[in-house]
Amino acid sequence: MRKLVVVCAKPAAILAILVQGGILDYYLIHHNGWTWAPWIAADVVCVAAIFCCIYYSRRYYDKYDREVQDEKDLELTQGWKDLEEPKVARGAPATLPLAYIGWLVYSGLLVARIVMIFKTFGSTISGEEVWGTNMLEFVIGGTAGIFAFLLATVDRKPTPSQKVCLKFLQHHVLLEIIDSVEFLTILFTAEHKLTLPGYVYDLILAFSCINMILPTLGLYQLSATNFKRAKPRENFYILQTILSTIFGNLPFLIIRVVLWSEHKFTNALFVMKNIIAMVQVRLKNICWAPSTYYVINGG
């Protein structure tokens, strides 16, 4: 069953990227004209990046297995006890060898299109149209699904520390992406009959986009680059949690409360989510502090 999920997740991720990219391209071309058609190239780049990650992952595991087998053969023929230096145990392989590069490329190009949409026509579209605010929100929200497909491409059984990071990505990051997409919907000012100062509009756009890119840190912790170290760093997802508070939950909460108090406009459910998330991060940081110190200092 696990192999079936992994096999299906890989083409599903690529298909989802193509569908999402195609619809965003349609929005850009429909509202801004055919001069925006070159953005279609962004879909090709995204798919190529994810495909390269999948291909590299297979090559990485093949190489890792060969090296493990070579060490076993050497042990049988020579015997480690006869060696002058003691055997150094081989570390576990990376869980997602190059996924962080794929996500960085994909999220970077996604953010670029989101910025172009909301800087040109995003605030003027209506929810009454088929290709209006609801469809745009749904399509951008598909980012969470693409991230879930990417996590599902894990080929090898993770170590306990890798499991902790994966669970963090599966729960915390997916919710933060959905929160960021909901936060972006504030910018549908024509539909909401809402007037926002220019700097508030830009802040909402900036903080939402930053949170789309932040998962790169958590994915880096599971990468082949990190696992080349004798002792892989295990605090990147903690750093991501702190940054998602600074650039996500805290500003999201402040802006939502201001809109609630001054314009009687907000989503109270996500206000509570931001409060709970910040309290949860604070409690976890208290628990993480000793172990983080030893990880950073190599203890």
List unreliable stretches of 5+ residues.
Answer: 289-299
The main pleated sheet reads as: none
Alpha-beta content class: mainly alpha
Which whole number gives the mean pLDDT?
Answer: 86
Overall shape: it is globular
- Helical content stands at over 70%
Task: Looking at this protein, list some descriptive labels.
73% helix; 299 residues; mainly alpha; single chain
Any overview of this molecule?
It is a single chain. The chain has ten helices and no strands. The longest helix is centred in the first third of the chain and has 38 residues. It has 299 residues and is mainly α. The protein is globular and about 75 Å long.
List the helices and strands and how they pair.
Elements: H1 2-32, H2 40-77, H3 99-120, H4 133-151, H5 160-184, H6 189-192, H7 198-213, H8 215-221, H9 236-263, H10 268-296
Short summary of the structure?
The protein contains ten helices and no strands. The protein is mainly α and 299 residues long.
